[in-house]
Amino acid sequence: MRLLHTSDWHLGRSLHRVSMLDAQAAFLDHLVAAVREHEVDAVLVSGDVYDRAVPPLAAVELFDDALHRLAAAGVPTVMISGNHDSARRLGVGAGLIERAGIHLRTDPAGCAAPVLLADAHGPVACYGLPYLEPALVRERLGAERTAHEAVLAAAMRSVREDLAGREAGTRSVVLAHAFVAGGQESDSERDITVGGVAAVPAGVFDGVDYVALGHLHGAQTVTDRIRYSGSPLAYSFSEAAHRKTMWLVDLDARGEVTAERIDCPVPRPLARLHGTLGELLDDPRHARHEASFVEATLTDAVRPADPMPRLAARFPHVLSLVFAPERAPEDTADSYARRLRGRSDQQIAEDFVAHVRGGSGPDGDESAVLHGAFDDVRVDAGVREVAG
């Protein structure tokens, strides 16, 4: 059986206020084309279909169009809710939609009720485990503790019990949305820590042939049978080096897994540039990033004037500006009190300006502004003392 594993669409999400809807639409075009080109038997979507619980109308319309196109392709789709989704909203009409071959699994009570698929080698039981919020599902699942590992372990016990009652040779697939130990995070995933622990051990999923994971945005292999597809698009600059893909998974007659990555379209690459403003504007090595989304980290000791418009002249799609001035190491042996001893308020303020600028103190005009500010404070304090 050939499966196409994807997740973390985050429909409706923006990148630094730049709408990604057109790029998301292009990805869904690519997904439907890949289903046909690679003769896929089923599509697996492992959560975070939307970016937030109440998605914008344009995102809902995009999702609706995707469902119609997948249904028209005649290929079953199994989809679970993630921690960004509203399980209730995503699951509305699930019973009716299922008649079209779109299987929405958003209710934790249905973890052990598989979507039954079949090929020439027999049945494949596909179990959808939606994102399980420990505090909300612990009692329903009979978990021992309010923790991610405990609720997932309870859900997987029910999966294994159901699987044990099925005909011999039934192969098994599990969709889950979780942070499995060994996975590599990025900045764009929402924290799911409970009680100080977010990660669950891979051993929780023992006993099934393939585990299609969602949540982490980088495509990665935890084990040969446990994989993250990652998000199809980059949603933070921490993902600049990611290769965005889907997994094309083949499950043979014995449940052995082979998998390859199918690249997703890249609407515009991301680049993280680091250096002084002059270096970023003049270095010919950065020419290849002039059409990229850019995060610029400036190392100038003194904050340059109007850096964003100057950067935008070369990099029209610069989205993020970070200041990280390079400074000479400080003498940490000297105490703070000793450094201030015998210095006036004006001198202390000028020293602070020099500190944040990496050693470059205020110029004459700035010193005059500081001097005037201290004079105003002294006058104000004197007036209040006389009035008191």
From TrEMBL:
<dbReference type="GO" id="GO:0006310">
    <property type="term" value="P:DNA recombination"/>
</dbReference>
<keyword id="KW-0378">Hydrolase</keyword>
<dbReference type="GO" id="GO:0008408">
    <property type="term" value="F:3'-5' exonuclease activity"/>
</dbReference>
<dbReference type="InterPro" id="IPR004593">
    <property type="entry name" value="SbcD"/>
</dbReference>
<comment type="subunit">
    <text>Heterodimer of SbcC and SbcD.</text>
</comment>
<dbReference type="GO" id="GO:0006260">
    <property type="term" value="P:DNA replication"/>
</dbReference>
<dbReference type="InterPro" id="IPR041796">
    <property type="entry name" value="Mre11_N"/>
</dbReference>
<dbReference type="InterPro" id="IPR029052">
    <property type="entry name" value="Metallo-depent_PP-like"/>
</dbReference>
<feature type="domain" description="Nuclease SbcCD subunit D C-terminal">
    <location>
        <begin position="267"/>
        <end position="355"/>
    </location>
</feature>
<keyword id="KW-0255">Endonuclease</keyword>
<dbReference type="InterPro" id="IPR050535">
    <property type="entry name" value="DNA_Repair-Maintenance_Comp"/>
</dbReference>
<keyword id="KW-0233">DNA recombination</keyword>
<dbReference type="Pfam" id="PF12320">
    <property type="entry name" value="SbcD_C"/>
</dbReference>
<protein>
    <recommendedName>
        <fullName>Nuclease SbcCD subunit D</fullName>
    </recommendedName>
</protein>
<comment type="function">
    <text>SbcCD cleaves DNA hairpin structures. These structures can inhibit DNA replication and are intermediates in certain DNA recombination reactions. The complex acts as a 3'-&gt;5' double strand exonuclease that can open hairpins. It also has a 5' single-strand endonuclease activity.</text>
</comment>
<comment type="similarity">
    <text>Belongs to the SbcD family.</text>
</comment>
<dbReference type="Pfam" id="PF00149">
    <property type="entry name" value="Metallophos"/>
</dbReference>
<keyword id="KW-0540">Nuclease</keyword>
<keyword id="KW-0235">DNA replication</keyword>
<dbReference type="GO" id="GO:0004519">
    <property type="term" value="F:endonuclease activity"/>
</dbReference>
<dbReference type="InterPro" id="IPR004843">
    <property type="entry name" value="Calcineurin-like_PHP"/>
</dbReference>
<dbReference type="InterPro" id="IPR026843">
    <property type="entry name" value="SbcD_C"/>
</dbReference>
<feature type="domain" description="Calcineurin-like phosphoesterase">
    <location>
        <begin position="1"/>
        <end position="217"/>
    </location>
</feature>
<keyword id="KW-0269">Exonuclease</keyword>
